[in-house]
């Protein structure tokens, strides 16, 4: 895989399944337009391949009405203004033209059909007048630099890759989609929630009378990352708190028995980090009561991926996606479970693969599954068998996908370490790059990883590991580096590297280290404390100094204390910048100008310190990009970054 081959990364996303209609939204980078192209595709359940369903340039988020008559989806146009924002469109499921039914200034979120197959719920950000291209009270539309100052009175006021929050709160809407089809233009819509708090994850009650959603604890009255489950009448009224969680809530739904299911984290103390996401259940409260939930899945072994799908009840079980040793598995949780451990949950799919999304209609299940040979294909699960229905990764395979070889190592304290190596073709000896993932409560997975493939195609063996601190190996594994960054996680990575270097065609004298975010932190840390192991380092979007990260990062106000502690001396002890004077290998600092997760000052401070110390340090700065450059940045920037990576390792390895 070469840098320009990112165009072959065609990835299916959200699935919609009803009757014989199976739709998915696909997206791929497009270097010519320097953007991402996406459309809805119909997948033949009989195995006849797939075909175009819509022909927009940026279509996504399909949803089929319960009666099977309509398809709602998001379509974004070209250029700027409202037309370029994703708006809800509706078209007949039998085929035909799509009609735009929303026209909100900043676009709309994914559509969710009501049981009556007429109304659609969605969330959307609503700007204050005079901001983000809207008119102010004087009928003027100020340029961004001429807008009034933002008056901020809370800590959770901005998010990387989204922007400022308080001046465009995310609110809940309902639109009569069928009635809107007869209107010449989208009607003005009134939000069901006020502007004091961002709300998310709408779903309907079975009678269509109310909409469930999540919102910050106590309607964002205080600074917190905690959230709860609320409901509001679909015709308007006061939101009601239904479930007070023990931490957070996401993707709430009403089960057939009337109870409420949701994903959530449990925080035993104050704001917390590295906690497994569980599946929870709570009774629908009577009167003015507020329900307390119970956890269906085990705290230590089950970590649910709420991004894959809301919980789906099939018979007496709930289907969820669970992280497990680099796999993302579709598992079945009994509705009457009580802290069920992972090994007791029936696995439907995902062994040594990654289930990224799924949809259910009756007893049929469709899923998007990535594998070591693909970035994702649509698979039909039926009768215990899996039938692959698409071949979106053919173009990717044609570039030459190299295999993931599993590695198991042992850390100095006897702890088992899991990872992989991707080796180039040929006898070698090949130079080696140790690549460290972000998070840290994240993981490399059993699926194609473009960064490893590009480097391996260029002749480098790439070592990928999930050291302590990673997700999917138990909550205690993830929390083992809380207030201990750079300790056992560093030991694990070096142990895995040593294991890889036992392979006969790897060159232990030509080794580099690279990573982004937490991986950038670890790259800086290893360069300072174990620099003799490496010839050079590539540190990207890194956390280098916890003391300034606290106030400069969008999540620093809770994340820094969670991982490094609140004591300033301990923060400095856990900061790579403190040890910049120990770094003496060539060092590339890479960052994005608009990164709010690990702000630019983190890169600038490290770069200046290294240059002042006489290190051969360089600085690669991407304009206009945020923290997600390598995954969703402008395609040309992604290729330019790959070119720079290859040039750097070409020089030093």
Straight-line distance between termini = 19 Å
Helix content: 10-25%
Query: Could you tell me the strand content as a percent range?
Result: 25-35%
| Individual helix count | 12
Number of strands: 37
Shape call: globular
The value of Rg in angstroms is 25 Å
Average pLDDT metric:
96
Low-confidence stretches: none
Keywords: Aminopeptidase, Hydrolase, Protease, Serine protease
Protein name: Dipeptidyl aminopeptidase/acylaminoacyl peptidase
InterPro entries: 6-blade_b-propeller_TolB-like, AB_hydrolase_fold, Peptidase_S9_cat, WD40
Pfam family, one: Peptidase_S9
SSE layout:
Elements: E1 11-18, E2 21-30, E3 35-43, E4 50-52, E5 58-64, E6 70-76, E7 87-92, E8 99-100, E9 112-113, E10 119-125, E11 158-159, E12 163-164, E13 170-176, H1 177-180, E14 200-204, E15 210-216, E16 227-233, E17 240-243, E18 250-254, E19 260-264, E20 278-282, E21 294-295, E22 312-314, E23 317-324, E24 327-334, E25 346-349, E26 354-361, E27 364-371, E28 374-382, E29 385-388, H2 394-398, E30 405-410, E31 416-422, E32 430-436, H3 450-457, E33 461-466, H4 475-479, H5 488-500, E34 506-516, H6 518-529, E35 536-540, H7 546-552, H8 556-564, H9 568-573, E36 587-592, H10 600-612, E37 617-622, H11 629-632, H12 635-652
Parallel strand pairs: 32-33, 32-34, 34-35, 35-36, 36-37
Antiparallel strand pairs: 1-2, 2-3, 3-4, 5-6, 6-7, 7-8, 9-10, 10-13, 11-12, 14-15, 15-16, 16-17, 18-19, 19-20, 20-21, 22-23, 23-24, 24-25, 26-27, 27-28, 28-29, 30-31, 31-33
Helix pairs in contact: 7-8
